[in-house]
Amino acid sequence: MKHENDIAALLELLKMASEQSPHSAIAEQSQNDFFREDRCLLEMWPEACERTGSVRREFPSGVIKLWQQRLGRAN
Known about the structure:
The protein is 68% helix and 0% strand.
């Protein structure tokens, strides 16, 4: 059940992010842009959980691992 709640909250988070900046092109983003985007997502996480009725908890570690891989950090 935890993973289902995480998925619902992550989908809501992506929807919120797209509403905030609908025209951002990935190819044109700098490393600093990625950092700002990731920070913004982390800040919106509690609201995404609230909107989906999920219990507020830590951001999913699997997503953080993907971010680290994108930054060139394997672990």
